[in-house]
Amino acid sequence: MIQTDQKKEDMTEVKRTRPLFLELLCIFSFVFFGIISILFLLSVFYSGWITDVVNQYTLKSSYSKAQILIITLGGFILHATAFAGAIQIWNLKKSGYYFFSISTLIAAVYHLIRHNIPVSYTALYIALIILFGLFYRKFR
Q1: How many CB atoms lie within 10 A of CB 124?
Q2: Is residue 102 part of a domain?
Q3: What is the value of pTM for the model shown?
Q4: HSE of 66 in the Cβ direction (CA atoms, 13 Å)?
Q5: Among 7, 54, 89, 125, which one has the highest count of C-beta atoms within 10 angstroms of its own C-beta?
Q6: CB neighbours (10 Å) of residue 66?
Q7: In total, how many domains does the chain have?
């Protein structure tokens, strides 16, 4: 009787292989990239109105509707891919880390190229890649 209880305790400990900090990172990524993906998807449908607003408030340059549509569609694809990668990371898959890190790295490089985007956003994206990378050995 004592041996079976101990085996059950060992089985419950073995099932939980995802560290708590990794769970918290995944939950943060679900919320962060999920909300941003939804906002980018909505902005794809309202790209004409967004073009008018951007052109009204930017003095140095004007954007066409196609440019705004490409930017918002690209943002949606990158953030949705990062969201899908976070789901795979939740399941401890290495391919999820690759999807997540490549899409987030592309977004971070875009942030560095654009001069009016704060560096803190770029730092957040790079920090997420590094923090998920700390758990790379746990992934299958």
Answers
A1: 14
A2: yes
A3: 0.81
A4: 0
A5: 89
A6: 10
A7: 1
